[in-house]
Amino acid sequence: MREAFNIGYDIILVSDSLGLGNKRHYETTLERVRDYYDRVLEHQDPTN
Predict the structure, then answer these.
(1) pLDDT in tens, 8-38
(2) Which of 4, 28, 41, 48 could disulfide-link to 9, CB 3.0 to 4.6 Å?
(3) How many domains does the structure of the chain reveal?
(4) Structural domain boundaries enclosing 31
(5) Buried residues in 10-34 as b, exposed as e (16+ CB within 10 A)
């Protein structure tokens, strides 16, 4: 992710795409991506 950002790609992370088993690591990853790369898309359930 960092390498792609450094060479000019826009970074978008879909929050449900993370396969982390630890809730704290999950939240920390989302926070850091928001802070450094600016784009985290949240899952929206289309049935609601």
Answers:
(1) 998 888 888 777 788 898 888 888 888 888 7
(2) 4
(3) 1
(4) 2-38
(5) eeebeeeeeeeeeeeeeeebbeebe
